[in-house]
Specification:
It contains six helices and four strands, in the order ααααββαββα. The protein is mostly helical and 133 residues long. Helix 1 packs across helix 2.
Length: 133
């Protein structure tokens, strides 16, 4: 619970750390680094879905599974399952990363061998320009 408090609001966690005897953020992060995670299809999720689907009518049995895997389909119990991407979420992630970092790339349309750098500031200027015209 302390880790979720730290992740959600670091400033609030520091205040709570003063009031209560809580571990430091560094200690929590070190502890988290000792936990090994692996990625795979979680069979417990499918078992729970299977159990829930037994109680539903045919029209209520449709569901959506979202995945961060790059494959369009994956196999589970000899059945192909389609992966559905979440474009708004990808756009938000891209935007968040763009705000935090500069994007460097090579343009096919420019003859220069120098990399092109795009910044969030460029998007803001373009937005302001479009709104004033």
């Amino acid at each position: 619970m302390t880790l979720s408090l730290l992740k959600r609001s670091p400033k609030s966690y520091i205040l709570l750390q003063i009031i209560f005897h809580l571990p430091t953020g560094r200690t929590l992060k070190s502890l988290l680094n000792t936990v090994h995670f692996r990625t795979s299809v979680n069979t417990h999720v499918f078992d729970a879905l299977h159990h829930s689907l037994q109680k539903m009518s045919e029209k209520d049995r449709y569901c959506c599974l979202l995945s961060s895997r790059s494959e369009l389909f994956f196999q589970f119990q000899n059945q192909a399952i389609a992966t559905i991407y979440d474009p708004p979420h990808f756009l938000k992630l891209t935007c968040d990363l763009f705000v935090k970092y500069e994007v460097q790339f090579k343009s096919e349309h420019l003859d220069s061998q120098l990399p092109v750098i795009a910044k969030w500031e460029h998007i803001e200027k373009l937005y302001k320009h479009n709104n004033t015209s």
